[in-house]
Amino acid sequence: MQAKKRYLIVLSAGACLALLFCLGGVRLPAAGRRSRHDRSRRSDQPWPHYSDPLHRFQPWDREDTEEFNLHTSPRQKKEANTSAYRGRRCRMDSCFDFSACHRNGFKVYVYPPQKGEKISESYQNILSSIEGSRFYTADPGQACLFVLSLDTLDRDQLSPQYVHNLKTKVQNLPLWNDGRNHLIFNLYSGTWPDYTEDLGFDIGQAMLAKASISTDNFRPNFDVSIPLFSKEHLRTGGERGFLKYNSIPPFRKYMLVFKGKRYLTGIGSDTRNALYHVHNAEDVVLLTTCKHGKDWQKHKDARCDKDNAEYDKYDYKEMLHNSTFCLVPRGRRLGSFRFLEALQAACVPVVLSNGWELPFSEIIDWNRATVIGDERLLLQIPTTVRSIHPDKILSLRQQTQFLWEAYFSSVEKIVLTTLEIIQDRVLEHGSRSSLMWNSHPGGLFALPQYSAYQGDFPFYYATLGIKPYPKFTAVIHAVSPLVSQSQPILKLLVAVARSQYCAQILVLWNCDKPLPAKQRWPATSVPVIVIEGENKVDFAFTVWQSFPERIVGYPARSHFWDSNKERWGYTSKWTNDYSMVLTGAAFFHRYYHHLYTNYLPATLKSMVDQLANCEDILMNFLVSAVTKLPPIKVTQKKQYKETMMGQSSRASRWADPDHFAQRQTCMNKFASWFGGMPLIHSQMRLDPVLFKDQVSILRKKYRDIERL
């Protein structure tokens, strides 16, 4: 018996060896000796020489080549054939030409509109946002990125916005170049019944900025996932978030809500059809209706009438604003309008859309603002959200407000975020960190070209645990000629130079009279640099060190809404509140000069230059838009008037009767570009201890401040 077993084992082993030999898995000893000989012979030449240069990776259409069919497995062929678009293997290093970007900077060209082609309002808003940005160029030779004027937003063949014959129109574009360095925007793709992600034309090597894109079709660090937004979404500015109070505990009337369509058949129907299992009509209110579409009654099921009746009992906005969590289940497509609605309402999104690549996932840490669920585990959702600690809930809600206002509140912000993401890829050495993208004020206001070190920005001192540099540079704008040594500008220069925190003084000479001789300027203990333009202090600085992200200064102004003229007004009247601090006597971080120069459009800066006015208003607009905070006013007596500096020169801009009217015009022009009024009123004024108290001057730290 034992001999028989041994015989069978030997026979089996021999059969296996024969099979391996036939398949090439075992080599003859001679071959092994030859291999060792070859290795010893190559030891004298450690690095092999290849006569043919390496061919660069070709991720685009190889499916029809003989080499592809010969060396590609059936599984790989299947993946390639089921891809929504041909260039699914595209990445920045294989389908993008960096040379133009490095040569001319990150510039974006929009094709001119083609005659007879209709453009939807939403797509026109996208194009207008690009054309109004600092990235835009009208010269295709300078462009790094190209955007079509052909409307590609809605690729549902049943939609009235669908553009026919797009394949031919795109291929005939003179700069198309198989889509290289092109960006295609899309909100809707596919149609009934399967709603695939196919756009209906060959995108070649183009990047996609697409809503409702799946992780299977999303090409990391190449495509950009954008949110689904409605045609009513504001082009600029955008509404603020609805979180008014950081209440503790942060609970609302409802724990979890949803109100939307229920699909009886087809893709996207499973999750919404099962929501009634979780609905309890108390703190979990999940409502669906079958009443949509022309023939909904033909397909209604036994639950439709009851669901429709329950659906009509609740107001959607009331639910949205009074719930802690908002369910965001997939619809026909992976994305949903509910996502942005929940973000704005400070209702923490609970996402139920397996396989959805969340918007701007490349830069946004969504774990800090959402709860990611699983469609297959719907019944566990209520238990999951109830288990989240109140502190975590408050943190989630606060982050929803930041993300909404930073990246999603307008079409312009969505477009600019998309472009900034691509620019970070192109200029990788100057890209933003995760901290910049996921903390206030956000990546759109933190320009990496300014510095690679976060400590050089005024927003991150507290996060990094550091303090601002303990010295300042004073900038004095001179518009009046030097007539006598008693002029206010010279007194100001001497007073500023005495500050223990002053490092240097820059005088911007913007007067029509020649620059005075060097001996006319007073002697100071710090360097004074005078720059000719072509076209009290210690206390204020110590206040600014505590608020380095804000403007801190002396003379204040305010804005108001004139209901009769239906426009914004500017006033210098003394009131209890203010919204601007004039930069002629103020401290602010030098980064805002960089932001002013590189973020604001040329149209606004040209307007300021032509008027020789309003630069202080524009700076206040910019800083308030970034910080969402008002400036800070410090001690000032009521002796200051804008006309004071004009008394010595008729040429002074303050003596111009049109000066005030120009500032009114500036207010409304700036508000239009920002998409709203970013200025915020404040009634806070910071004075030093014992200011104006009837005590000895020797007891006061800032002894000269009352004489300013």
Automatic annotation (TrEMBL):
Pathway of action: Protein modification; protein glycosylation
One Pfam entry name: Exostosin_GT47
All residue ranges annotated as the Exostosin GT47 domain in the record: 104-388
Tree of life domain: Eukaryota
Location in the cell: Endoplasmic reticulum membrane
PANTHER family (UniProt xref): ACETYLGLUCOSAMINYLTRANSFERASE (PTHR48261), EXOSTOSIN GLYCOSYLTRANSFERASE 1 (PTHR48261:SF3)
Protein name: Exostosin glycosyltransferase 1b
